[in-house]
Amino acid sequence: MVDAREREIGQMNEENVSKLLSSLSLFPFTQQLRIAIEEWLVLIAHARNEACDPALRAYFPLYVCIGKKPGG
Fold first, then answer.
1. Residue 48 region, left (φ>0) first, then alpha (ψ -120 to 50), else beta?
2. Helix (H) or strand (E) holding 4
3. CB under 8 Å to 52, separation ≥6 — which residues?
């Protein structure tokens, strides 16, 4: 059973993945792997559909670094 906090985190993660997926993958796929834009768009559409699948419970490491300026 998923509690309300996990559901909220999942919704935020889905939004982040949806927004970042295309921008993070455009260069490597089209310039490095030489995939045509049309093929890349199809690939991104499939990836977005998978990211929205509630059965998929993807976990991403999250690193937080908090610092304080010396003397401040």
1. alpha
2. helix 4-27
3. 14, 18
Q: Write the pLDDT tens digit of every residue in 34-48.
A: 999 999 999 999 988
Question: 40 and 25 in contact (C-beta within 8 Å)?
Answer: yes
Confirm if 20 and 27 have CB atoms less than 8 A apart: no
Residue 13, token pair as written in the block: 């993660």
Distance CA(49)–CA(52), nearest Å, equals: 5
Cβ atoms 51, 14 nearer than 8 A: yes
Report, as ranges of residue numbers, the positions in the chain whose pLDDT lies below 70.
Answer: 1-2, 72
For the CA atoms of the chain, what is the radius of gyration?
A: 17
How many residues comprise the chain? 72
Residue 1's pLDDT is 66
Give 22's contacts (C-beta < 8 A, 6+ positions apart): 44
